[in-house]
Amino acid sequence: xxxxxxxxxxxxxxxxxxxxxxxxxxxxxxxxxxxxxxxxxxxxxxxxxxxxxxxxxxxxxxxxxxxxxxxxxxxxxxxxxxxxxxxxxxxxxxxxxxxxxxxxxxxxxxxxxxxxxxxxxxxxxxxxxxxxxxxxxxxxxxxxxxxxxxxxxxxxxxxxxxxxxxxxxxxxxxxxxxxxxxxxxxxxxxxxxxxxxxxxxxxxxxxxxxxxxxxxxxxxxxxxxxxxxxxxxxxxxxxxxxxxxxxxxxxxxxxxxxxxxxxxxxxxxxxxxxxxxxxxxxxxxxxxxxxxxxxxxxxxxxxxxxxxxxxxxxxxxxxxxxxxxxxxxxxxxxxxxxxxxxxxxxxxxxxxxxxxxxxxxxxxxxxxxxxxxxxxxxxxxxxxxxxxxxxxxxxxxxxxxxxxxxxxxxxxxxxxxxxxxxxxxxxxxxxxxxxxxxxxxxxxxxxxxxxxxxxxxxxxxxxxxxxxxxxxxx
Length: 474
Ligand SMILES: Cc1cc2nc3c(=O)[nH]c(=O)nc-3n(C[C@H](O)[C@H](O)[C@H](O)COP(=O)(O)OP(=O)(O)OC[C@H]3O[C@@H](n4cnc5c(N)ncnc54)[C@H](O)[C@@H]3O)c2cc1C
What we know:
Layout: H1 5-11, E1 15-17, H2 20-25, E2 39-42, H3 46-59, E3 63-66, E4 83-86, E5 102-105, H4 111-118, E6 123-124, H5 137-143, H6 150-153, E7 160-167, E8 172-175, E9 200-208, E10 210-211, E11 215-222, H7 230-237, E12 244-250, H8 252-259, E13 272-279, H9 282-298, E14 306-308, H10 311-318, H11 321-329, E15 333-334, E16 337-338, H12 344-357, E17 362-367, E18 372-377, H13 384-399, H14 418-437
Parallel strand pairs: 2-4, 3-4
Antiparallel strand pairs: 1-2, 5-9, 6-10, 7-8, 7-9, 11-13, 11-14, 12-13, 12-17, 15-18, 16-18, 17-18
Helix pairs in contact: 12-13
Bound molecules: flavin-adenine dinucleotide.
């Protein structure tokens, strides 16, 4: 049944498009999944967004929020149809609150644009995902994104001070304090951080900011093939005078793919450790580099490290690892597992075994400092064999006390594993939040929760009126 877009246009002022080129564009993200958007809507302001939500409740139409569309597990794919709500035009950046060290931004601000905006003010928003040139702050918040600098600074969750949100009921709420601190029961910010657009739409975020260090050095250390990684990281991380803000790894073949990128200038011929060291000036930086050199020699690594003056460029280049593999091999299984650091070499061994058993090629890179690897296995991700490989990787990480998602999220792809990782009680709490914030189940159905849709445009019988919260059913 066609969507009643004429009735939407009576209350909604923003652009609504249902031409095939529009619906095709918003039916995909960076994953292998393809949805079936029936329309895309670009709300003009918060009132407009509320009108859209109330219309969707009345007509039982799924709404899927979309920022940069760079998700890797189908988080922004409209698997249940309906309307995709675009936020890429909500790009306001307010003046910096230099006393509180915060800035309020629109959800459509691109991570890297914010980075450049803040640079002259000597502040930065630390999470720098590989997709930072195209992912948005709204998407980063909704997936609790992280990046190389999360080794020192943590993921997005730590840097969100408060968020303005329109819930699935159409109600507006501000989650998080307006003051520097407060003690007012559990802080409900996590209703949105990491919720993948299933509980509400983020309409503005107040972010905490860090001070840009005086100097940042990007350092590339060539590694011998097969070198144990856990002890390396532990040694570097336990030298606080080095002040590492990022400890990344790329295996030999991923490094070769990056070496082939224009103006990459990466040394060596095998795997690489990519580091970022922060310091207070030239002298401290030289001391850190000398200490790093000694540390590496102590670990039996004799090949000299290379210094890259522009660490941002190093992270942009490292962020191209996934796309470099995608352009060489086409769609393949791209995973996102993390384990406690002392289990990272065992995880790597399991990944090799999974690939060898299936006669598949394995490429690995990741945020090594946090025990977080992105195994890429060359098998069609949409095939039964691809699903088998994914499950084997998740089970290996789980068995080592790890997680199936270090940063990308759950989306449609990983929700089958959620109960195993969170347990029944954890999933029950998520269901409770869902039924309170989105009683009609119109927000991004088919994501995150193991047994939530996809339901299709008809989402079942009407539930209680807007604003009426339901008791968590358990
Ligand atoms: C090359 C590449 C490298 C990547 N590297 C990293 C990395 O290093 N670290 C990392 O964490 N991730 C990484 N990712 C994954 C992805 O970029 C992140 O998850 C990112 O945060 C998604 O942002 P986005 O703006 O593209 O969001 P989208 O893909 O548009 O949406 C992501 C989720 O957020 C929801 N959403 C979007 N906007 C809103 C809003 N305003 N309100 C409520 N919900 C909303 C969507 O519904 C969806 O569930 C990478 C992806 C690619 C393609």
